[in-house]
């Protein structure tokens, strides 16, 4: 069965069945991601960010401000 056929089959189900299928798929995906090793280059980036936080040099932006900036950038 191809991906398109599988998706069509899921979409053809009643709402509660489709939700249960998607919940199971999401749980499976989450487990795979959580049990996968972090690539070395990603770990390096995370370590650098943690170092900045611990040194008090990290700059944070709240979601409302970031969303506004992204929407304004998209409009131009």
TrEMBL record:
Cross-referenced Pfam families: Unstab_antitox (PF09720)
Highest taxon listed in the record's lineage: Bacteria
Family annotation (InterPro entries): CHP02574_addiction_mod (IPR013406)
Protein name: Addiction module component CHP02574 family protein
Organism per entry: Turneriella parva (strain ATCC BAA-1111 / DSM 21527 / NCTC 11395 / H) (Leptospira parva)
